Amino acid sequence: MRLATPFVKLPVRFDALRLAEETSQFDERDWRPHPQRFQGNSSLILVSSLGEENDRVAGPMQPSPRLAKTPYIRQIMVHFDTVIGRSRLMRLAPGASVDPHTDTHHFWRDHLRIHIPIATTPDVSFHCGGEQVHMGAGEAWTFDNWRQHRVHNGSDRPRIHLVIDTVGSASLWRMIESGPAGPLDVAFDPGRDAVPRFEGFAGLPVMPVAELETNLEVLVADIAEETEDALACKADLRRRTADFVRDWRSLWVEHGPGAAGMDAFRALLNGYRQVVDELPARLVLASNRGTFSVAARSTLDAALAPERLSAHVARAPAGATAPSVPRFDRPVFIVAAPRSGSTLLFETLANHRALWTVGDESHRQFEGIPALRPNKANQSNRLTAEAATAEVAEALTRALTADLVDCDGRSAVLLPPALQPRELRFLEKTPKNAIRIPFLLEVFPDARFVFLYREARQNISSLLDSWRSRRYVTYPRLPGWRAEEPWSHLLVPGWQRFIGRPLAETVTYQWVITNRIILDDLAALPRERWCSVEYDRFLAETPAELERLCRFAGIEFDARMRDVATGPLRPSKYTLTPPMPGKWKKNAAELEPVLPVTEPLMAELRAL
User: Can you spell out the DSSP letters for 101-170?
Assistant: First the structure.
């Protein structure tokens, strides 16, 4: 958030000793490394996306179980009279630093960060915009993180701050703008159970025109006019930006923020992104000397969020009653090891008019039910029939019903009651569900399964790349697991055996055990209840394979699906790098020792 000055000290003071007491109850296992791996930086999550162990900035934000153990921190949050976003304790080891940087991510265009020091010494210095301060224990500060800033702990003790992210409220902004004043002491009230408000809306699938226009125009206007070349480039960019925003507005009034216009928005966005990518790196911003293209890309990255489609369309009007749960008739589950192409297959089949989905993977619907998360009794994502109690089955079908969308992104919930489906065909794909087939059969006794598999060396090479990208981390603080390479994708039974082993061995086991469980579970079903698909064959013979899958599912291979099958298949939303023949070879040296382990299973898969 941009401010008029680098630092603002808020006119309030908290009890640092009480805060230290609440902090001391947590042990080292509660702390996690900085997401960018800054040496000596760690955090303890209090409020996060879905209340889970993650660093995501998109909501809905929910308290972690730790917040319930910190009544004074909850009182502090309520004192600021604002909606609370991502919040945590942030620790800086003795002698450690936060390197100079600017926060250009789109999230920070409208979010403040409030710092309340808990453990600190005068040797801890905070630098921002050419100024330096020491934030004293119990004080409250915010700062202009758009400017370049850094922190250094010059002491021999850890520095710990309570850090709260928020968009602010009128009363909080009055506090910020009121200027220096005698601080109001806010003591802990042992009789008060404060309940903060949390950010619940993550945003629309398509950025509104006014937000996009304002963000880009501010950035273009901020370009430093230091040379004739910069002036000319800025003038041309202003014209191109105006054209882009006008076309965005045109698409908005045609389609709104739903699924129907997503492809058109994406094509327009990619065209403007190319303009930004071709700009010279010397085009910098006068406000913080950051590169214009880096800041602009952050806005463009936030402009489309198709993963929000189901959440957006399922947001019912105030006062609406909960929808009745339809009958899920022969639901179709795509089961596959991660990185095997299942998203591409799902997105292709989801074009069928007869099929309903939740718009994406179903992690939220399944793991929003505590009993379906890994626990001490079941330390993996494996679920058997015993987990499908009547209560769990009802909760799951209601969660899925709330997010149902058709092939054009229209919500079942928002249809008039008379038009809401009483019976429907459901399509689902979530890699974790590959090892939950007995559970799924207990909840949906007439379920069908499409087993997708991919050649081992391609699949395992893609797994290596995805783990290293850190884009697919699911369990960042798995007990005993190496923090520098957090667990990604589904958590398979027996993962503990690979603590300390090379990553290539881990992902090979992940591939082998997932496919092994799928094969063994499907073997208990009549053959007409499941079919198999080989990824390369699906790509090479898409029309024939898609027709076969429609026939298996009992749905018509109609003109719409023929068009999908004969047109170019777009890379899926979870594509890491563009498809390329022989891409796996870059990891050939790591794969060579582990591929022999996959050969017996590959022989079984080829026999299908």
Answer: E---SGGGGS-EEEEEEEE--TTEEEEETTEEE---TTEEEEE-TTS-EEEEE-SSS-EEEEEEEE---H
Asked if residue 159 has pLDDT above 50, the reply is: yes
Radius of gyration, CA atoms only, the chain: 26
pLDDT for position 574: 62
* C-beta of residue 79 within 8 angstroms of C-beta of residue 189: no
Q: Whole-model pTM?
A: 0.56
Burial 439-475 (b: 16+ CB within 10 A, else e): bbbbbbeebbbbbbbbbbbbbbbbbbbbbeeeebbbb
Distance CA 282, CA 233 (A): 11
Whole-angstrom distance, CA of residue 287 vs CA of residue 219 = 10
User: Six-digit token pair at 489?
Assistant: 């994708």
Q: Can you tell me the distance from the alpha carbon of 367 to that of 380, in angstroms, rounded to the nearest whole number?
A: 12
How far apart are the C-alpha atoms of 554 and 567, rounded to whole Å?
23
Q: Is 426 helix (H, G, I), strand (E, B) or coil?
A: strand
Q: For residue 60, is the peptide bond before it cis, meaning its omega torsion is within 30 degrees of 0?
A: yes
Mean local confidence (pLDDT), 175-191 = 85
- Does the pLDDT value for residue 339 go beyond 80? yes
Q: Which residues pair with 405 in a beta bridge?
A: 357, 411
Buried b (16+ CB within 10 A) or exposed e, 266-295: eebbeebbebbeebeeebbbebbebbbbeb
Please report where in the chains the tokens 């022969």 appear, as a residue.
330
- Pairing assessment for the beta strands 7-14 and 32-33 based on DSSP bridges: unpaired
Q: Cα separation of 92 and 34, whole Å?
A: 10
Q: Which residue in 235, 325, 224, 241 sits closest to 282, CA to CA?
A: 224
φ/ψ of 325, rounded to 5, equals -80, 120
Q: Checking phi first, is residue 135 left (phi over 0); if not, alpha (psi -120 to 50) or beta?
A: beta
Which residue bears the tokens 């009794």? 377
Task: Please determine, for residue 307, whether its predicted confidence score (pLDDT) is greater than 80.
Answer: no
